[in-house]
Amino acid sequence: MSENPKKKAGPLARLPRGFADRGPAEIAATNAMLETIRKVYELYGFEAVETPAFEFTDALGKFLPDQDRPNEGVFSLQDDDEQWLSLRYDLTAPLARYVAENFDALAKPYRSYRAGYVFRNEKPGPGRFRQFMQFDADTVGSATPAADAEICMMAADTMEALGIQRGDYVVRINNRKVLDGVLEAIGLGGDDNAGKRLTVLRAIDKLDKFGPEGVGLLLGPGRKDESGDFTKGAGLDEPAISRVLAFTAAKGADAQTTLANLDRVVDGFERAAAGVGELRTMAGLFAAGGYGEDRIVIDPSVVRGLEYYTGPVYEVELTFPVTNDEGQVVRFGSVAGGGRYDGLIARFRGEEVPAAGFSIGVSRLAAALKSLGKLDAAAIPGPIVVLVMDKDRVADYQAMVTELRRAGIRAEIYLGSSGMKAQMKYADRRGAPAVIIQGSNELAAGEVMIKDLVAGAEAAKSITDNAEWRAARPAQFAAPRAGLVQAIQDLLSKS
């Protein structure tokens, strides 16, 4: 007798690198956080808009996050009409396209917010995902630095609405006009130097990590890290490096000292001086609004990595220490950032349209809130489970479920084929607060039996023998069938 042929293997169940599944507890906690953010944004007069995950590739522009990767940092495909489409890598480029396409129909300044997943074709690693969620807010059509100041104040209010106390976060602001003026002064102006400017920006962005000495190497010949990997530098000479580092070191004990230091650094350079003037205006608005330097500070080391920023830039940094999985004390660092991008919409319209906005990294902020105990990651309560004791009475059990649902109570009928013991185990795994039982005896008495699984689990901790368990019948009680809904409502109100 020949052996049966082996069953053909199907595809291997595996998750692509850089992506993550999310369960109900994480989803519920994240949704609660998003709702809090949304309420703050709407308090400031921002309104929701949603754009699709795909855009025409040319609409995303040249300002891509990881230009040394295939597809320049984005995931792309060619449509059947030979048009190239790409998954959005942020929420700002799609907004620029949306505003340009609907420009005449929108009230301006146009204030909008949107949340959604973005996708980056980058090398994944610890805490570095290819798909992650952002929550953005932008003002389009206002050239005044008051629009930037408002976004910074809203960012501060958002952190506190989420339960992050004053002193555990700071909104740090700078102005790219100041840095761009410094770069022009050392010969890095114009389109021909765009690549080198980006290298300088990325170097300055590492100031907290590597310090002035490490950044100086990245501005000059390059830097070798502890593992021996070498990062090529911007190739600046010593006077140019000194000037850039002097700019980043201009932060003083208070806003007025910082602004005075910047005045000296940019003396004689009109564009840079205009940037300092905008920072001075913003500082006055913060003071008028009651936002002290314990919440918002001017910090010349903030640069933001993307080239499209044209004025004020800002970051929200969490300053409280946490202990990581290796037992090391670390800080979360930046969880949000943005700035002014007056040239982005001009790509579509051929004329400059002022715009400013910022983006919250949802997953990173959620992790921070969880570490503070400010994010309830517990699973949402499971449904009431109606057990199927007699298979020929499914309609009766379905009627119970329907009554509970109409009363706004999560409920389900057991749809498997197992017996009572397995059904109880199922209810436990679903996190059900209670089960409803009606066998022939309960039916004859016009009752239902309700097992309070939460109270039962607590009572069981103090019961050590089966006889005691049977005598106690913990958290189990009968209720009239007609009073089922009221009995469950009373039970849930006590939990």
What does this protein look like?
The structure is a single chain. With 495 residues, the protein is an alpha+beta fold. The protein has a domain at 384-494: 3-Layer(aba) Sandwich (Rossmann fold). It is built from 18 helices and 18 strands. The strands form four sheets. It has an eight-stranded mixed β-sheet. It has a five-stranded mixed β-sheet with strand order 15-14-16-17-18. A three-stranded antiparallel β-sheet has the order 2-4-3. It is elongated. Residues 63-70 have low confidence and may be disordered. Keywords: Aminoacyl-tRNA synthetase, ATP-binding, Cytoplasm, Ligase, Nucleotide-binding, Protein biosynthesis. Residues 31-381 form the Aminoacyl-transfer RNA synthetases class-II family profile domain. Belongs to the class-II aminoacyl-tRNA synthetase family.
Short description:
With 495 residues, the chain is of the alpha+beta class.
Give the key terms.
495 residues, alpha+beta, Rossmann fold, 5-stranded mixed sheet, 18 helices, 40% helix
What is the structural class? alpha+beta
Tell how many strands the DSSP assignment holds.
18
| Strand proportion | 15-25%
CATH topology of the domain at 384-494: Rossmann fold
The first-level CATH class of the domain at 384-494 is given as Alpha Beta
> What is the helical fraction, as a range of percent?
25-40%
CATH architecture of the domain at 384-494, by name, is: 3-Layer(aba) Sandwich
Number of helices: 18
Rg, rounded, reads: 30 Å
Please identify which CATH superfamily of the domain at 384-494 we are dealing with. Anticodon-binding domain
Q: Strand order, main sheet: write it out.
A: 1-5-6-13-12-11-7-10
Could you tell me the mean pLDDT?
88
Uncertain regions: pLDDT < 50 for 5+ in a row?
A: 63-70
- End-to-end Cα distance, whole Å, is 63 Å
Shape: elongated
- Sketch the major β-sheet: 8 strands, mixed
